[in-house]
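Notebook, p. 212. Picked up where the previous page left off. The plan for this session was modest: take the two constructs that came back from the sequencing core last week, fold each one, and keep the raw output in the notebook itself so nobody has to go hunting through shared drives later. Recording the first one now, exactly as returned: residue sequence, then the structure token string.
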Amino acid sequence: MSRAASVPPGGYPEAMSQGARPQPGRAKSPQRRRRARWLRQVNEYSAGGLVVDLDSDIPRGALIGRTDRHGRLLWSLPKGHIEAGETAEQAAVREVEEETGISGTILGELGTIDFWFVAEGRRVHKTVRHYLMRAVGGELSDADVEVAEVAWVPLPEIAAQLAYPDERGLVTTAGRLLAETA
């Protein structure tokens, strides 16, 4: 599953989009240097997921809200970078707790999403592994500086609240996994 890629104004130069690199020793014009800045590719790896409270009458999941550059609140699943020495599973549990205040244990894998974006003059290919977790402690909190709001949302309503279609597919997978374990 992929989100749409961000492309700089005017698109990428054709040769660079096909993986070509400037030849050593060739002088670069100021225009080529600017283009090269846009094309520096970086791979990033993150993990997160959906933590669910199965002890309430209606199962619910914790979502985070972040404000985009246009001031809109976008709801998503919590996630973050995998630190050195961490497994994806460890990072997912840590990131969910940091961003929601809820500690969880992994019930299963929901899937992997990858997408492209441009930030700080880099073309970033991000891969995020998502897990289904059962809440085992903590209290819902938006104390993380990267999070504007957090909320428990009834599972049947989560897909409609999520900003990104690829995450909605993960919620469908979570419903199937929960039905199988019931």
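Okay, moving on. Second construct, recorded in the same format:
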Amino acid sequence: MKLIFWTLGAFLQAAAMSIFLFPHAVSSGGAAGISIIMEHLFQTPYAVSIWGVNAVMIVLAVRWLGIRAAAGTMYCVTATVVVINFLTPFFDSPAGPVWIDLPAGSLVFGIGVGILFRYGASSGGMSIAALILSKWYGWPSGRSLFYINTLILVVAGIVVDVQTIVYAVICQWISSGVIDGVQSFSFSFLQKKPLPKR
């Protein structure tokens, strides 16, 4: 059952990035922000930086979250990359204006990552750091992810370009709230309630 939700979460976050965020050059997270900084300062290819960040984070996931969570993360990262590679050629230009695509992408992205968090996996990158902080200190995962990514994106904005980073911070603010909402959402209303005793 978890595999179904992991696949759904990975698909939603990949669709959000490919359809709504990437066409406007909006970074959806800290790993992308780090890759932007590395490319600007050292001409490091984006793929190399993102792979490096995820490799380090997966090692940390094995150490602090357990092999099962790390395996789930590796599956979700792979599924996300596959979907992005499939969808990106069809959405090389924005679907709409940024003031529509940004909140829509942030909402779908937050739902996808929230599903992954709820079912014990992560989307890779800084999501793993957020889960570790949540485990250590009991902080909400979405809020932890927002603080980490915002710090990275502010640095990227100073180094590279302020306008796109402002969009990225807005994306983080919306999606982090959605992530926490998905994690705390109760499905109790779907459960059968016992009939009252007479």
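Notes on construct two before I forget. The radius of gyration is 17 Å.
Flagging for discussion at group meeting.
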